């Protein structure tokens, strides 16, 4: 008998016909998902007192399933997304030779790779507003430009030609950050983020620019122009690389550790209403920036 069964709810599946009618008290059922609630295709309303553990991107999950973690190079410790993470202080000046070499050729303002053109976050409308003030090249199905996203050619293009990359989420959900943002953090370009996560919990300070720190698209665009015209200020956004690195830690390792623990609550706890836990209040539809 398996110690645990994972249920990935991104796609619908017939639970009644898939699991035994009599459950073993020594087998845990795990609710697992990496996508936001809008991508949950499985119906959860009938699954009361069904799941024992949750394994999602949310910080209130039993096991946090993250694409990447920031690790302190000196201590080797992961920086966990607490309310007030302990990051190292941001220096007033930071020199990055790689950025200096690329700087003369960084003549374009911002790039955005996107395949979903109508979203709950209205990110496409936000981008249209920003395009009134700065140049934004849109690649993929929703724009006139093309480049295979994730290819070495596109990576070089972003590194060498652009100052900023738009990492805009399709929905504004608590704690949700796409894998694309972590990939961009490894490039020589500053991410401009827009989503429902409290980015201060997940990313080092002054390593990104948050759309919702600004009142209007024009105010944001003016700041982007300022940073793009000042190499000293631009390089400060890469200070964190001296102290931190991104690593992947498998959530399945933590799950295995949990399964080897003998605490009574692990064998008896259950989520009385997983639908409410997962859906209620987890996303918002109103942005804090006016557009």
TrEMBL record:
Highest taxon listed in the record's lineage: Eukaryota
Family assignment from sequence similarity: Belongs to the glycosyltransferase 10 family.
Signal peptide (UniProt feature, chain positions): none
Entry-linked SUPFAM superfamilies: UDP-Glycosyltransferase/glycogen phosphorylase
Compartments where located: Golgi apparatus, Golgi stack membrane
Record GO cellular component, one term: Golgi cisterna membrane
Topology within the bilayer: Single-pass type II membrane protein
Keyword annotations of the record: Glycoprotein, Glycosyltransferase, Golgi apparatus, Membrane, Signal-anchor, Transferase, Transmembrane, Transmembrane helix
InterPro entries given in the database record: Glyco_tran_10_C, Glyco_tran_10_N, Glyco_trans_10, GT10-like_C_sf
Domain Fucosyltransferase N-terminal: 2-67
Enzyme Commission designation: 2.4.1.-
Transmembrane spans: none
Pathway recorded for this protein: Protein modification; protein glycosylation
Protein name from the UniProt record: Fucosyltransferase
Claim: Glycosyltransferase is one of the keywords in the record: yes
A Pfam family assignment: Glyco_tran_10_N
Coiled-coil residues: none
Ranges where the Fucosyltransferase C-terminal domain occurs: 103-277
Any GO molecular function: fucosyltransferase activity
